[in-house]
Give the backbone structure.
Amino acid sequence: MSHADRWRIVPGVRPDLVAIDPAGTDGAPGNKSATGEETATLAERLADLQGRLWAESERSLLVVLQAMDAGGKDGTVKRVFRAMNPMGIQATSFKAPNDTELAHDFLWRIHAALPERGKVGIFNRSHYEDVLVVRVEELVPEPVWRPRYEAIRAFERMLTTEGTTVVKVFLHISREEQAERFRARLADPTKNWKFAAGDLDVRARWDDYRDAYADAMEQTSTATAPWFVVPADHKWYRNWAVSRILVDVLDAMDPRYPAPAEGLDRIVID
Ligand code: AMP
Ligand code: MG
């Protein structure tokens, strides 16, 4: 059993998001400051593991981040992934699809943004929007979005066998915490830009989104491409938990520096 199993969604099981406390701190090594220290230690391991993955250049890791608005996707990218060498990272945030993207299947833009061998790809939102916002806002009818669960399973299975490890993280915040963060976005001029008027319409449909998330995770958490639900009201806990998951996943991938070229040991630099 790995540390990350605490947050893993078992395949076929619908997570009960009402029962999972967004303010929970289960398994944390201590209070905010002790946990922060542990996160710093994990950051060093992340840096080492990513360096190996980059040097090996054979496989890649895709980390999908999903959350309600203000759930901490941007903050997680900033705080957790800064441990890594930017050269080996490819981060993409997905907005509402443009006309060209809409003229293709929903995985077309996703496929184009995948990390090449050696890289860690970060998706801030993802193909999951096509069974979340698209479902709740009825942007397409059910006969169109429902088969997407199977399409996603098949797509991620293909990625896995082709050398891309896929992990998916749902940052789980409470409705109250979202309200706090929205208020901060309205009050702080440096955060105003993060608030969109439409965010309140989405907030009004909180329960519908929660149901859509639970269904998506039940349908698409698999042994090889698992979902993790991370309580995210406390940013210090979220950063530690996501770091913990990434270290576990990269450890299991066990990336290796390539074997030295033949004869390196006989070369003399004068
Ligand atoms: P933000 O992450 O705050 O920059 O907002 C991005 C917006 O794009 C959100 O409102 C998402 O719901 C929306 N979005 C992302 N992907 C899709 C999609 N496939 N279909 C419709 N809207 C999307
Ligand atoms: Mg937003």
